[in-house]
Amino acid sequence: SLGGTMAEPKATSTAEPLLLNAVRGVDVERPPVWLMRQAGRYMKAVFLGFLVSYQIICEKYPSFRERSENVDLVVEISLQPWKVFKPDGVILFSDILTPLSGMNIPFDIVKGKGPVIFDPLHTAVDVDQVREFSPEESVPYVGEALKILRKEVDREAALLGFVGAPFTLASYVVEGGSSKHFSKIKRLAFSQPNILHALLQKFTTSMAKYIQYQADCGAQAVQIFDSWATELSPVDFEEFSLPYLKQIVDIVKQTHPNLPLILYASGSGGLLERLPLTGVDVVSLDWTVDMAEGRRRLGPNIAVQGNIDPGVLFGSKDFITNRIKDTVRKAGKVKHILNLGHGIVVGTPEENVAHFFEVAKGLRY
Ligand code: CP3
C-alpha cells in the first residue's frame, strides 16, 4: 500500500541503483526519486554539521561558466543535494549550453538575464562555422567530474548526465538567448529550412557523441532536454525535432545499448504519442498532463518520469504529501521515476524539498 510510512533507509544490497532497476521494469519497492535542478539557487544553507550552500559558492564564484567548468566546483555543487537529500539520481552540475564554446559559439549565462549568445547564427555561412563537438578536447572537466562523482555516489544512486536536444540548442543560438515567440528560429524554419536542418544535424552528431562521452566517464543514464520543442506544432515537431532525437538515440544505442535515455519536453501534452517514436527509454512528463492519462497515452513499454508541479513545493506539507501519493498511485508500480514536471523554482523553501524527499523515500508499493 502507499501508506507513506517512514522506513529506515535500507542499505542497498542490489548491484544496480534503484533508478536503473525501475527504468528496466524490475520490481522495486518504491519509485526512485530525484528533482530537476536539484542543485542550484534555492539552496541557501542547510546545516548538517557542515554548511551546504549553492548561494555561498555563487558569491565566491559569480560567473556561472566558472562554476560549471571547474572540476572541483562541479563535483561540489553536484554533491550538495546528494549530501542533504540523498536522491536516487545525482545529476551533473552543468548546462545544456556548456558544449557551445567548444563548437565555436561563444556564450555566457548572465545573472538576471539568462543565456546570451554573442553572435546569433542566421546564415548558411554562420552554420558552416559551427564546429563538430569533441568532448574530450573541449569539456574534459565534465568527464573528470563524472568519474569523481561516480566514485562518490557509488551504487547508492544513479549518476545522471544530460544534453540539450538539437531543436532546443538551435533555438538558443538562433534567438541569441531565451525567447518568448521564437520568431527568429521560426523565420529560419519556415523560409530557409535547409539552413536550420544543417544546424540541427551538427547538434545531432555532436550531442550523440557527448552522450557517449558522458556514459564512458560514468553517467548511468542521460536526460535529453528538448525544453522548447513544444513551441512547434506537431507537423513541425515531426520535421525539426523528432528525426534528430531519433537519430541521437540510434547512434547512442549502437555503442551503449543499455544506457537509459530520458526525454524531457515541457508542455508536451500535444505531442505525447510522438515522443516514444524517438526510441528513448523514459519520457519525462510535465504537470499539464495527468499522470494516469500520460501513462495510457505513452503505452506500457516506456518508463515515465515526473510529473509534480514545482509550485506544489510552495504548498503545505500535507498538500505535498498527498500530491506525491496521488502521482505515484497514478503512475503504477513499474517503470516510474518520481520527479517534478520541470526544474525547482528559485525561492522554493528548502524544508519543503526535504519533506518531499522524506515522504518519497518512505513510500512502499
Ligand atoms: O538539474 C540540475 O540540477 C543540473 C543542472 C542544470 C542546469 N541547467 C544548471 C543551471 C540543468 C539540467 C540545466 C539544463 C538547462 N539549461 C535547460 C533544460 C532544462 C529546462 O529548464 O528546461 C535549459 C533550457 C537551460 C538554459 C538555461 N541555463 C536557462 C534558461 C538558465 C536560467 C537563467 C536564469 O538566470 O534564470 C540557465 C542557467 C542555469 N543553469 C542555472 C542553473 C542552476 C541558474 C543560474 C545560476 O545558478 O547562476
Automatic annotation (TrEMBL):
- Give a GO cellular-component term: chloroplast
Pfam families given for it? URO-D
Give the CDD domains listed for this entry: URO-D
- Domain Uroporphyrinogen decarboxylase (URO-D) residues, every copy: 32-41, 160-176
Cell location: Plastid, Chloroplast
- Mind telling me which residue stretches traverse the membrane in this protein? none
Q: Which reaction does it catalyse?
A: uroporphyrinogen III + 4 H(+) = coproporphyrinogen III + 4 CO2
Main localization, broad class: plastid
Q: What is its EC number?
A: 4.1.1.37
Q: Supply the alphabetized keyword list.
A: Chlorophyll biosynthesis, Decarboxylase, Lyase, Porphyrin biosynthesis
Q: Which domain of life is it from?
A: Eukaryota
Q: Name one GO biological process term.
A: chlorophyll biosynthetic process
Instruction: Give the matching InterPro entries.
Output: UROD/MetE-like_sf, Uroporphyrinogen_deCO2ase_HemE, Uroporphyrinogen_deCOase
What pathway, per the record? Porphyrin-containing compound metabolism; protoporphyrin-IX biosynthesis; coproporphyrinogen-III from 5-aminolevulinate: step 4/4
* Family matches, as PROSITE patterns: UROD_1, UROD_2
Lyase listed as a keyword: yes
State one molecular function term (GO).
uroporphyrinogen decarboxylase activity
Q: Which HAMAP family match?
A: URO_D
What do we know about how this protein assembles, alone or with others?
A: Homodimer.
The entry assigns this protein to a family as follows:
Belongs to the uroporphyrinogen decarboxylase family.
Q: Describe the function of this protein.
A: Catalyzes the decarboxylation of four acetate groups of uroporphyrinogen-III to yield coproporphyrinogen-III.
Please report the name of this protein according to its UniProt entry: Uroporphyrinogen decarboxylase
Which species?
Dillenia turbinata
